[in-house]
Design the sequence.
Protein backbone atom coordinates (compact mmCIF):
# COMPACT_ATOMS: atom_id res chain seq x y z
CA UNK A 1 0.00 0.00 0.00
CA UNK A 2 1.37 3.44 -0.90
CA UNK A 3 2.21 5.74 1.98
CA UNK A 4 -0.41 8.41 2.75
CA UNK A 5 -0.58 11.09 5.49
CA UNK A 6 -2.44 8.72 7.82
CA UNK A 7 -0.09 5.76 7.38
CA UNK A 8 2.45 6.85 10.07
CA UNK A 9 -0.40 7.05 12.57
CA UNK A 10 -1.69 3.64 11.52
CA UNK A 11 1.76 2.08 12.01
CA UNK A 12 2.15 3.85 15.36
CA UNK A 13 -1.22 2.60 16.62
CA UNK A 14 -0.59 -0.92 15.34
CA UNK A 15 2.72 -1.21 17.24
CA UNK A 16 1.21 0.14 20.46
CA UNK A 17 -1.83 -2.09 20.04
CA UNK A 18 0.50 -5.10 19.84
CA UNK A 19 2.16 -3.96 23.07
CA UNK A 20 -1.12 -3.24 24.85
CA UNK A 21 -2.65 -6.54 23.79
CA UNK A 22 0.38 -8.55 24.87
CA UNK A 23 0.40 -6.91 28.29
CA UNK A 24 -3.31 -7.14 28.98
CA UNK A 25 -3.76 -10.66 27.65
CA UNK A 26 -0.82 -12.01 29.64
CA UNK A 27 -2.16 -10.33 32.77
CA UNK A 28 -5.69 -11.64 32.21
CA UNK A 29 -4.60 -15.11 31.21
CA UNK A 30 -2.57 -15.55 34.40
CA UNK A 31 -4.63 -13.45 36.79
CA UNK A 32 -7.35 -15.84 37.98
CA UNK A 33 -4.96 -18.73 38.53
CA UNK A 34 -2.35 -16.44 40.12
CA UNK A 35 -4.97 -14.81 42.36
CA UNK A 36 -6.54 -18.13 43.44
CA UNK A 37 -3.53 -20.46 43.56
CA UNK A 38 -0.73 -18.12 44.72
CA UNK A 39 -2.36 -15.13 46.43
CA UNK A 40 -5.23 -17.22 47.83
CA UNK A 41 -8.18 -14.98 46.96
CA UNK A 42 -11.80 -16.18 46.90
CA UNK A 43 -14.54 -15.07 44.48
CA UNK A 44 -15.51 -12.00 46.47
CA UNK A 45 -11.89 -10.84 46.81
CA UNK A 46 -11.28 -11.38 43.10
CA UNK A 47 -14.33 -9.16 42.48
CA UNK A 48 -12.80 -6.44 44.67
CA UNK A 49 -9.51 -6.52 42.73
CA UNK A 50 -11.41 -6.43 39.43
CA UNK A 51 -13.42 -3.42 40.65
CA UNK A 52 -10.26 -1.59 41.68
CA UNK A 53 -8.75 -2.44 38.29
CA UNK A 54 -11.48 -0.39 36.64
CA UNK A 55 -10.93 2.78 38.69
CA UNK A 56 -8.29 4.11 36.23
CA UNK A 57 -10.87 3.70 33.47
CA UNK A 58 -13.32 5.68 35.60
CA UNK A 59 -10.64 8.38 35.84
CA UNK A 60 -10.17 8.50 32.05
CA UNK A 61 -11.70 11.98 32.14
CA UNK A 62 -8.30 13.15 33.44
CA UNK A 63 -6.92 12.43 29.95
CA UNK A 64 -8.39 15.76 28.84
CA UNK A 65 -6.34 17.59 31.46
CA UNK A 66 -3.22 15.50 30.74
CA UNK A 67 -3.47 16.65 27.11
CA UNK A 68 -2.88 20.20 28.28
CA UNK A 69 0.60 19.08 29.34
CA UNK A 70 1.57 16.44 26.78
CA UNK A 71 0.57 15.69 23.19
CA UNK A 72 -1.90 12.89 22.70
CA UNK A 73 0.42 10.46 20.92
CA UNK A 74 3.05 10.97 23.64
CA UNK A 75 0.46 10.18 26.28
CA UNK A 76 -0.34 6.97 24.40
CA UNK A 77 3.36 5.98 24.49
CA UNK A 78 3.77 6.77 28.19
CA UNK A 79 0.64 4.75 28.94
CA UNK A 80 2.18 1.67 27.30
CA UNK A 81 5.36 2.08 29.37
CA UNK A 82 3.18 2.23 32.50
CA UNK A 83 1.25 -0.87 31.39
CA UNK A 84 4.47 -2.81 30.83
CA UNK A 85 5.86 -1.83 34.22
CA UNK A 86 2.69 -2.96 36.00
CA UNK A 87 2.71 -6.36 34.31
CA UNK A 88 6.45 -6.89 34.89
CA UNK A 89 6.14 -6.22 38.62
CA UNK A 90 3.03 -8.36 39.29
CA UNK A 91 4.85 -11.60 40.08
CA UNK A 92 7.16 -9.90 42.58
CA UNK A 93 4.27 -9.08 44.95
CA UNK A 94 2.29 -12.32 45.56
CA UNK A 95 -0.02 -10.90 48.21
CA UNK A 96 -3.29 -8.98 48.20
CA UNK A 97 -1.90 -5.45 48.59
CA UNK A 98 0.86 -6.07 46.06
CA UNK A 99 -1.61 -7.48 43.55
CA UNK A 100 -3.85 -4.45 43.96
CA UNK A 101 -0.99 -1.97 43.49
CA UNK A 102 0.49 -3.64 40.41
CA UNK A 103 -3.01 -4.08 38.99
CA UNK A 104 -3.67 -0.36 39.37
CA UNK A 105 -0.38 0.55 37.67
CA UNK A 106 -1.09 -1.80 34.79
CA UNK A 107 -4.66 -0.56 34.54
CA UNK A 108 -3.76 3.14 34.38
CA UNK A 109 -1.49 2.34 31.46
CA UNK A 110 -4.05 0.20 29.65
CA UNK A 111 -7.05 2.50 30.06
CA UNK A 112 -5.22 5.69 29.19
CA UNK A 113 -3.81 4.04 26.07
CA UNK A 114 -7.25 2.77 25.08
CA UNK A 115 -8.70 6.27 25.49
CA UNK A 116 -6.00 7.90 23.35
CA UNK A 117 -6.01 5.00 20.88
CA UNK A 118 -9.73 5.38 20.19
CA UNK A 119 -9.43 9.17 20.04
CA UNK A 120 -6.50 9.14 17.60
CA UNK A 121 -8.24 6.56 15.40
CA UNK A 122 -11.41 8.63 15.12
CA UNK A 123 -9.43 11.84 14.52
CA UNK A 124 -7.00 10.61 11.88
CA UNK A 125 -9.24 8.41 9.72
CA UNK A 126 -12.35 9.23 7.74
CA UNK A 127 -15.81 7.92 8.61
CA UNK A 128 -15.63 5.62 5.60
CA UNK A 129 -12.24 4.22 6.60
CA UNK A 130 -12.55 3.99 10.39
CA UNK A 131 -14.38 0.62 10.57
CA UNK A 132 -11.76 -0.85 8.22
CA UNK A 133 -8.95 0.53 10.41
CA UNK A 134 -10.61 -0.81 13.56
CA UNK A 135 -10.88 -4.20 11.89
CA UNK A 136 -7.19 -4.20 10.97
CA UNK A 137 -6.07 -3.04 14.42
CA UNK A 138 -8.19 -5.66 16.16
CA UNK A 139 -6.98 -8.34 13.78
CA UNK A 140 -3.37 -7.49 14.68
CA UNK A 141 -4.38 -7.48 18.35
CA UNK A 142 -5.78 -11.00 17.94
CA UNK A 143 -2.53 -12.17 16.34
CA UNK A 144 -0.60 -10.63 19.24
CA UNK A 145 -2.84 -12.45 21.69
CA UNK A 146 -2.13 -15.74 19.96
CA UNK A 147 1.60 -15.08 20.21
CA UNK A 148 1.58 -14.27 23.92
CA UNK A 149 -0.84 -17.09 24.74
CA UNK A 150 1.34 -19.57 22.83
CA UNK A 151 4.39 -18.30 24.70
CA UNK A 152 2.68 -18.76 28.05
CA UNK A 153 1.46 -22.21 27.05
CA UNK A 154 4.96 -23.31 26.03
CA UNK A 155 6.73 -21.76 29.00
CA UNK A 156 4.00 -22.30 31.61
CA UNK A 157 5.50 -25.56 32.81
CA UNK A 158 9.06 -24.22 32.79
CA UNK A 159 8.82 -20.70 34.23
CA UNK A 160 6.91 -19.54 37.30
CA UNK A 161 4.39 -16.69 37.39
CA UNK A 162 7.08 -14.14 38.26
CA UNK A 163 9.16 -15.01 35.19
CA UNK A 164 6.17 -14.98 32.85
CA UNK A 165 4.92 -11.59 34.06
CA UNK A 166 8.43 -10.13 33.92
CA UNK A 167 9.20 -11.35 30.39
CA UNK A 168 5.98 -9.97 28.89
CA UNK A 169 6.08 -6.72 30.87
CA UNK A 170 9.63 -5.86 29.77
CA UNK A 171 8.77 -6.37 26.08
CA UNK A 172 5.70 -4.16 26.43
CA UNK A 173 7.65 -1.38 28.18
CA UNK A 174 10.39 -1.47 25.53
CA UNK A 175 7.82 -1.04 22.74
CA UNK A 176 6.42 1.95 24.63
CA UNK A 177 9.89 3.49 24.93
CA UNK A 178 10.44 2.97 21.19
CA UNK A 179 7.21 4.78 20.37
CA UNK A 180 8.27 7.83 22.40
CA UNK A 181 10.77 8.57 19.62
CA UNK A 182 8.05 8.57 16.93
CA UNK A 183 5.90 11.48 15.72
CA UNK A 184 3.06 10.18 13.51
CA UNK A 185 0.97 13.37 13.66
CA UNK A 186 0.12 15.93 10.99
CA UNK A 187 -1.60 19.33 11.01
CA UNK A 188 -4.75 18.44 9.06
CA UNK A 189 -6.54 17.08 12.15
CA UNK A 190 -9.03 19.50 13.84
CA UNK A 191 -7.90 20.94 17.17
CA UNK A 192 -9.64 19.26 20.08
CA UNK A 193 -11.64 21.04 22.77
CA UNK A 194 -9.66 20.28 25.92
CA UNK A 195 -12.48 20.62 28.41
CA UNK A 196 -14.69 18.04 30.04
CA UNK A 197 -18.33 18.57 29.08
CA UNK A 198 -21.33 16.30 28.56
CA UNK A 199 -23.59 17.14 25.60
CA UNK A 200 -27.27 16.27 25.46
CA UNK A 201 -26.91 15.39 21.77
CA UNK A 202 -24.59 12.50 22.70
CA UNK A 203 -26.84 11.02 25.41
CA UNK A 204 -27.50 7.76 23.55
CA UNK A 205 -23.76 7.27 23.05
CA UNK A 206 -23.23 7.81 26.78
CA UNK A 207 -25.96 5.29 27.68
CA UNK A 208 -24.70 2.64 25.28
CA UNK A 209 -21.18 3.13 26.61
CA UNK A 210 -22.39 2.76 30.19
CA UNK A 211 -24.22 -0.47 29.40
CA UNK A 212 -21.25 -1.79 27.43
CA UNK A 213 -19.16 -1.38 30.57
CA UNK A 214 -21.52 -3.64 32.50
CA UNK A 215 -21.57 -6.24 29.72
CA UNK A 216 -17.77 -6.16 29.44
CA UNK A 217 -17.22 -6.80 33.13
CA UNK A 218 -19.38 -9.89 33.20
CA UNK A 219 -17.30 -11.22 30.32
CA UNK A 220 -13.92 -10.25 31.78
CA UNK A 221 -14.47 -10.91 35.47
CA UNK A 222 -17.07 -13.62 35.77
CA UNK A 223 -16.96 -15.76 32.63
CA UNK A 224 -13.25 -16.41 33.22
CA UNK A 225 -13.85 -17.00 36.93
CA UNK A 226 -16.62 -19.45 36.00
CA UNK A 227 -14.19 -21.50 33.93
CA UNK A 228 -11.45 -21.44 36.58
CA UNK A 229 -13.44 -21.86 39.78
CA UNK A 230 -16.52 -23.84 38.70
CA UNK A 231 -15.12 -25.90 35.83
CA UNK A 232 -11.52 -26.06 37.16
CA UNK A 233 -9.71 -24.84 34.03
CA UNK A 234 -5.92 -24.68 34.40
CA UNK A 235 -3.62 -21.99 32.98
CA UNK A 236 -3.00 -24.20 29.97
CA UNK A 237 -6.73 -24.79 29.46
CA UNK A 238 -7.35 -21.05 29.49
CA UNK A 239 -4.42 -20.52 27.14
CA UNK A 240 -5.89 -22.93 24.59
CA UNK A 241 -9.20 -21.03 24.72
CA UNK A 242 -7.36 -17.73 24.25
CA UNK A 243 -5.60 -19.11 21.18
CA UNK A 244 -8.87 -20.40 19.70
CA UNK A 245 -10.61 -17.07 20.37
CA UNK A 246 -7.92 -14.98 18.79
CA UNK A 247 -7.37 -17.28 15.81
CA UNK A 248 -11.06 -16.82 14.99
CA UNK A 249 -10.92 -13.08 15.56
CA UNK A 250 -7.78 -12.61 13.47
CA UNK A 251 -9.88 -13.51 10.42
CA UNK A 252 -13.22 -12.20 11.70
CA UNK A 253 -12.37 -8.63 12.80
CA UNK A 254 -11.80 -7.23 9.28
CA UNK A 255 -15.17 -8.72 8.33
CA UNK A 256 -16.79 -6.98 11.32
CA UNK A 257 -15.43 -3.67 10.04
CA UNK A 258 -16.93 -4.29 6.62
CA UNK A 259 -20.22 -5.42 8.18
CA UNK A 260 -20.49 -2.13 10.08
CA UNK A 261 -20.10 -0.27 6.79
CA UNK A 262 -22.63 -2.44 4.96
CA UNK A 263 -25.26 -3.03 7.66
CA UNK A 264 -24.84 -0.02 9.95
CA UNK A 265 -24.22 0.30 13.66
CA UNK A 266 -27.78 -0.39 14.80
CA UNK A 267 -27.99 -3.82 13.19
CA UNK A 268 -24.51 -4.87 14.34
CA UNK A 269 -25.16 -3.83 17.95
CA UNK A 270 -28.59 -5.49 17.91
CA UNK A 271 -26.95 -8.73 16.79
CA UNK A 272 -24.40 -8.40 19.60
CA UNK A 273 -26.95 -8.03 22.37
CA UNK A 274 -29.31 -10.71 21.05
CA UNK A 275 -26.31 -13.03 21.20
CA UNK A 276 -25.24 -11.80 24.65
CA UNK A 277 -28.65 -12.62 26.15
CA UNK A 278 -28.39 -16.22 24.97
CA UNK A 279 -24.73 -16.53 26.03
CA UNK A 280 -25.27 -15.22 29.56
CA UNK A 281 -28.35 -17.41 30.11
CA UNK A 282 -26.33 -20.42 28.97
CA UNK A 283 -23.49 -19.53 31.36
CA UNK A 284 -26.04 -19.55 34.18
CA UNK A 285 -27.69 -22.83 33.22
CA UNK A 286 -25.01 -25.13 31.84
CA UNK A 287 -23.21 -27.80 33.79
CA UNK A 288 -21.14 -28.81 30.79
CA UNK A 289 -17.50 -27.85 30.58
CA UNK A 290 -17.67 -28.04 26.76
CA UNK A 291 -20.76 -25.81 26.51
CA UNK A 292 -19.22 -23.24 28.87
CA UNK A 293 -16.10 -23.21 26.70
CA UNK A 294 -18.18 -22.72 23.54
CA UNK A 295 -20.06 -19.82 25.15
CA UNK A 296 -16.77 -18.22 26.15
CA UNK A 297 -15.60 -18.35 22.53
CA UNK A 298 -18.92 -16.96 21.27
CA UNK A 299 -18.80 -14.24 23.95
CA UNK A 300 -15.33 -13.22 22.78
CA UNK A 301 -16.49 -13.01 19.16
CA UNK A 302 -19.52 -10.76 19.73
CA UNK A 303 -17.56 -8.66 22.22
CA UNK A 304 -15.78 -7.17 19.18
CA UNK A 305 -19.05 -5.81 17.79
CA UNK A 306 -18.96 -3.06 20.43
CA UNK A 307 -16.56 -1.08 18.20
CA UNK A 308 -19.74 0.06 16.43
CA UNK A 309 -20.44 2.34 19.42
CA UNK A 310 -17.28 4.31 18.60
CA UNK A 311 -17.99 4.51 14.87
CA UNK A 312 -21.52 5.70 15.73
CA UNK A 313 -20.05 8.47 17.87
CA UNK A 314 -17.68 9.52 15.08
CA UNK A 315 -20.64 9.95 12.72
CA UNK A 316 -22.73 12.09 15.07
CA UNK A 317 -20.00 14.08 16.89
CA UNK A 318 -18.42 17.42 16.15
CA UNK A 319 -14.83 16.60 15.00
CA UNK A 320 -13.47 18.83 17.79
CA UNK A 321 -15.33 16.75 20.40
CA UNK A 322 -13.59 13.43 19.62
CA UNK A 323 -10.88 13.53 22.34
CA UNK A 324 -13.12 14.84 25.17
CA UNK A 325 -15.93 12.57 23.95
CA UNK A 326 -13.73 9.50 24.16
CA UNK A 327 -12.55 10.51 27.64
CA UNK A 328 -16.15 11.03 28.77
CA UNK A 329 -17.18 7.73 27.20
CA UNK A 330 -14.45 5.77 28.95
CA UNK A 331 -15.35 7.35 32.29
CA UNK A 332 -19.06 6.57 31.86
CA UNK A 333 -18.22 3.05 30.69
CA UNK A 334 -16.28 2.46 33.89
CA UNK A 335 -18.97 3.67 36.28
CA UNK A 336 -20.62 0.28 35.71
CA UNK A 337 -17.24 -1.43 35.46
CA UNK A 338 -16.18 -0.25 38.93
CA UNK A 339 -19.45 -1.18 40.63
CA UNK A 340 -20.39 -4.42 38.90
CA UNK A 341 -17.44 -6.68 39.88
CA UNK A 342 -17.81 -5.63 43.52
CA UNK A 343 -21.57 -6.28 43.61
CA UNK A 344 -21.27 -9.28 41.33
CA UNK A 345 -18.53 -10.79 43.47
CA UNK A 346 -20.80 -10.62 46.53
CA UNK A 347 -23.69 -12.15 44.56
CA UNK A 348 -21.31 -14.83 43.25
CA UNK A 349 -20.76 -15.96 46.85
CA UNK A 350 -24.52 -16.55 47.14
CA UNK A 351 -24.87 -18.27 43.75
CA UNK A 352 -22.49 -17.95 40.81
CA UNK A 353 -25.47 -17.91 38.40
CA UNK A 354 -26.83 -14.58 39.63
CA UNK A 355 -24.29 -12.27 37.86
CA UNK A 356 -25.05 -13.96 34.53
CA UNK A 357 -28.84 -13.72 34.96
CA UNK A 358 -28.47 -10.04 35.83
CA UNK A 359 -26.23 -9.58 32.79
CA UNK A 360 -28.87 -11.10 30.49
CA UNK A 361 -31.43 -8.64 31.86
CA UNK A 362 -29.08 -5.68 31.27
CA UNK A 363 -28.42 -6.94 27.73
CA UNK A 364 -32.18 -6.96 27.04
CA UNK A 365 -32.45 -3.34 28.21
CA UNK A 366 -29.56 -2.35 25.96
CA UNK A 367 -31.11 -4.15 22.99
CA UNK A 368 -34.20 -1.98 23.34
CA UNK A 369 -32.12 1.23 23.60
CA UNK A 370 -30.15 0.35 20.47
CA UNK A 371 -33.32 0.58 18.38
CA UNK A 372 -33.24 4.38 18.82
CA UNK A 373 -29.76 4.59 17.29
CA UNK A 374 -29.66 6.62 14.08
CA UNK A 375 -26.73 8.05 12.14
CA UNK A 376 -26.58 10.41 9.13
CA UNK A 377 -27.29 8.38 6.01
CA UNK A 378 -28.83 5.50 7.97
CA UNK A 379 -31.26 4.77 5.19
CA UNK A 380 -28.39 4.52 2.71
CA UNK A 381 -25.22 3.05 4.24
CA UNK A 382 -22.03 4.99 3.73
CA UNK A 383 -20.50 4.05 0.39
CA UNK A 384 -16.93 2.79 0.51
CA UNK A 385 -14.75 2.89 -2.58
CA UNK A 386 -13.82 -0.55 -3.89
CA UNK A 387 -10.17 0.52 -3.78
CA UNK A 388 -10.43 1.04 -0.02
CA UNK A 389 -11.78 -2.45 0.57
CA UNK A 390 -9.12 -3.84 -1.72
CA UNK A 391 -6.45 -1.97 0.25
CA UNK A 392 -7.66 -3.66 3.43
CA UNK A 393 -6.80 -7.04 1.94
CA UNK A 394 -3.18 -6.00 1.42
Sequence:
Amino acid sequence: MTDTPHQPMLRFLLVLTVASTMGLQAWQLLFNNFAVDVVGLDGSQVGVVQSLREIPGFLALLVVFALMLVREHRLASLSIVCLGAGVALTGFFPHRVGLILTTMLMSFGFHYFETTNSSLTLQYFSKARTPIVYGRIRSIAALSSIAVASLIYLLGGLIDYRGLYLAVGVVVALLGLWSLRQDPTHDAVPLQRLRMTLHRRYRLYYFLTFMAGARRQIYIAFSMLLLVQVFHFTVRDMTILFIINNAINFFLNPLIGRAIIKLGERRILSLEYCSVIGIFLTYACTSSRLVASAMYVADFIVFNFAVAINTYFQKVADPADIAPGMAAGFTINHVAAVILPLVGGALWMIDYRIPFLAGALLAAVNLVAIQWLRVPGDAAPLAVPAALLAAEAE
User: Anything to note?
Assistant: The mean pLDDT is 84. The chain has one domain: 7-181+199-392.
